[in-house]
Amino acid sequence: MEPKNYLQDINEIKNLMNKSSRFISLSGLSGILAGFYALIGAYLGYGIIYDHNMVTADGYRAIIISQSGLLSIVIVALTVFLLSVLTGIVMSYTKAKKQNESMWDSTSKRLIINFMIPLATGGVFILLLMEKNLYAFVAPLTLIFYGLACVNASKYTLGYIRYLGITVIIIGLISTYFLGYGLFFWALGFGVCHIIYGTIMHVKYDRMKS
Description:
Elements: H1 3-21, H2 28-50, H3 67-98, H4 106-131, H5 138-153, H6 160-177, H7 182-209
Helix pairs in contact: 2-3, 2-7, 4-5, 5-6, 5-7, 6-7
């Protein structure tokens, strides 16, 4: 057998192993769109918080949010989250269908479970902080717990998700030091980072296989 055939067989075996242990149908384009959704959400959040003078005089240590303002911010955040999830599901399903792969299998189930455990824990913790009116920590903690969720789930999907998670965790930790400016770090972590990593994944995985 020629060396070229050996290499082809090795690549086929590698691809089969990846498909059996990792969910590789994640769409990079969905990450790009999620980043744009986050930037739009951050812009709307900026208008809600700063245009209505909902920041303390120093603008650094704390944020004062009225009930109506809090409701508006929650609605914006949930809308961004739902749009991102729906976009990811639709585009990943389309990609899996093109590659004749199953989107809902044991690997994707493990991916979702490992992703949701840190995310749900962080969500409950953040709600408890909001109940105590500690709003300045919301943006840093959403970044940190989201990053932990990405790292925890990355072993079941593309490796770039791990690097995305680590990057977002670092941004969240920096944001914790600069309390009161969390919205800008939120835009950087959820917006810019998603666009960058989504573009890399789209170029490396989506376009190469299209």
